[in-house]
Amino acid sequence: MEPSRTEVNPGGSVVLACRIYNKQGECSWQKDGKPQGMFVGKYEWAGDRDAGDCSVRVMDAAEMDDGGWECQVTASAFTAQDALTSRVARLVVRVAPNRPQMEVDKQAVVAGHNFTVKEEENARIRCVSRFGNPPAVIKWFIGESSCILQA
């Protein structure tokens, strides 16, 4: 079982699952392509590694934990070609986006105020919400029709 995309709130804990049938080598993890050590109270083994459960528990999740995680198992012997590496699984540490802001031709519209666009003139109207993780989903309505956009 390979780890999969997982979301966690800041300060929360999450387990990234990794189980290997008939595991012979040693478990390890990489985050963003770099070896990741185990640290008491932060990154700890979540399962019985001898039984093939190489899952890791991430505690007190923070922005630094956000990224691509890979489970690995070393080869069973020097001459063996049985080392394993999982696909990269994204760990998303959620961050609330800023409140949506309307812009007309790159000029911010003050919340609660109207804006005017002259008939038959083009204007670029945007609704932006910055800094969210994952990015905010913005939905526009024009009459009964809607359009969903990623921020």
From TrEMBL:
Membrane topology: Single-pass type I membrane protein
InterPro entries tied to this protein: Cell_adhesion_signaling, Ig-like_dom, Ig-like_dom_sf, Ig-like_fold, Ig_I-set
Subcellular location, record wording: Membrane
Example GO biological process: cell-cell adhesion
Molecular function in Gene Ontology: cell adhesion molecule binding
Residue span, Ig-like domain: 1-85
Keywords: Disulfide bond, Glycoprotein, Immunoglobulin domain, Membrane
Record GO cellular component, one term: cell-cell junction
Name of the protein: Ig-like domain-containing protein
The species this protein was found in: Petrolisthes manimaculis
